[in-house]
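Late entry, written up from scratch paper. The run itself happened at the end of the previous shift, but nothing got recorded in the book at the time, so transcribing now.
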Amino acid sequence: MRILHTSDWHLGISHGQTSRGPDQDRFLAWLTAQIDAQQIDTLIVAGDIFDSFQPPASALKRYFRFLGQLQATGVVQVVIVGGNHDSASRLDAPSEVLDGLGVHVVGGIGGSEASWDRCVIPLNNRAGDIAAVALAVPYVHEFRLGVRTTDADRGEVRAAFQRKFSALYSRLADLAQERYGDLPLVATGHLTLGSANKDDYPHEIHQVGHIDGLPPSLIDPRIQYAALGHIHASYPVDSARKAWYSGSPVAYSLREGRSERKVLQVSLAADPTGQPEVTPLVVPAARELLELRAEPDALLAQIAALRSPAPLPPLLFCRVQADSLPVDMSQRLHETLQQFAEDERPTLVELRLELLSPETEAADDVEHPSLKELQPREVFGVLCASQGQNDEAITAAFDTVATASPADLETLVAQIAGGAA
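Output as recorded:
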C-alpha cells in the first residue's frame, strides 16, 4: 500500500491583496503528477484544506478541479479530513457525490460513537485488494469528547485530553479489526502532538498554550502510521517514526519560506506490526518570500537588483532602517517596482520602520509587538495581567471558547443556558 500524505493547503489564503492561488495551482499540478508517477494507491489530506470556514469560490473551484483531475492518475482512493480552519459541514456536504469518485471525506465527528462509524475506511491497492484500513480522524474539539476545563487545573486537563483522545483512536482500531481483520492501520489527526515551535502553526488548538502538546503515546500502538496535520513543519513526532507531520506544501510565512516544503510518500509494511517506509518529497517552490532590511536608498537598490529564479515573482517584507519613514518612501517603492515587467514584478507585502537612533532605543528598551503580531490568547493574557487576574481557570475558560467552532459554541451556550435554568 503506497500512500501520499499532505496537509495544511489553506486554499483561499492571501497576503494582503495578493492571492496565493497561483502558488497552490502549481503545487496541486505537481502533486497530481507525483501521484501518477509514484503509482500512489491512497492520497491522505490531514486537514486545513481551506483557510477559512467560508472559502472564496475560487478556492472551492480549485479544490474540486483537483479532485476531478485525480481520476486520470489511477489513484484508488482519497481520504480527506477537516482541520480547525475548515467548516466540517461544508466539507461533508458533497460527500455522497465524492464517494462515487473514491473520495472519502470526514469533515467532523461528534462525541457519540455512532458518528465515528464513517471514520473507518478500507483502503484498496491498485490490484483491487483491501490492503489497509484508514482511521480518518478530523480535528475534534475537546468539548465534543466530554473534556471540561473550566474548573480543572493544568494536570487534570492534560490527563483528560490524553484519556479521551486515546480512547477515540483505540475504539476506531477495535472497529477496524472487527470488520477487516488484522490489516495495517493508518490514522489521521489534526492536533498538536509532541513539542512544536509556536511559529510552525498559525493558531493554537486543544489549549496547547495551556497544557502544551499532547503526548504521541495517545496514538494506539496498533496504528502503523499516523498522518498528522496542523503543524506547518515536516518531521516525525515520535522516536519510532510512525507519526509524522507533512507540513504545509506552500510557504505562508517568512519562517516557512526558509525551509523546504514537503509531502510524504509512505509505504506500509504488509505486517500490521511492521515499520512504514517514509520518504519526504520536496515540493518545488513557486516563489520566494524575501525579508529585506536596509536604509532607504540601500533598500530600494536591493529591490531594483532582485532577480528571482522561482517561476512566480517574490513577496517582499521590507524593513526600513531609519529614524523616521521618509515621506516619499511609498512613492519611491512604487516607482522601483514599476521598473519590472508585470509578470516579474515583486509584490510588497509588508513595510515596517526599524528605528536606528540610539536615543530612541535607549528611551524604550522593550520591543513592543504590534496588535497584529499578537495571538488572541496573548491579548487576553495582557488584559488579565492589567486587571490583576492570573487565575488558570479564567485562562482555561477563554481557551475553550477561543478554540471552539461555531457549532461547538452553540452547544456550549445551550448547556450554559440549561444550567442557569
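Residues 360-366 have pLDDT under 50 and may be disordered.
(Scratch paper discarded after transcription.)
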